[in-house]
Amino acid sequence: MKPDVYSQKCGSRQVLDRIGDRWSVLVVLTLADGTKRYGDLARRIQGVSQKMLTQTLRALERDGLVTREVHASVPPRVDYALTELGRSLLDLVSGLEAWATTHLDEVEAARVRYDAQAM
């Protein structure tokens, strides 16, 4: 059976949910230039809770998009990096980032117009 994201039971919908998630997109973008430690990710991605960052990293690792390497040191050091599969998302998420930053003013203006009409 061919994958169909419109089908409720198709696994491709879960993949779409993962790669379209805000925190997943930001983690992938942060890892674009190389391996990062957990603290580096947490500092870069403002507003993400420790719980949500941990859940996102685990989900990305489970889906084969991120690797987690634990180094035997005191304190333990954990590094995260994109896999080849994860790197294949870079053009897509970089495009989303570029679109969001390029069109931010237009979107904000549209919100102001919409909110003014809704009153």
TrEMBL record:
GO terms for molecular function: DNA binding. Pfam families: HxlR. InterPro entries: HTH_HxlR, WH-like_DNA-bd_sf, WH_DNA-bd_sf. It comes from the Bacteria. The keyword Zinc does not apply. Signal peptide: none annotated. Residues 10-108 form the HTH hxlR-type domain. Gene3D superfamilies: Winged helix-like DNA-binding domain superfamily/Winged helix DNA-binding domain (1.10.10.10). This is Transcriptional regulator, HxlR family.
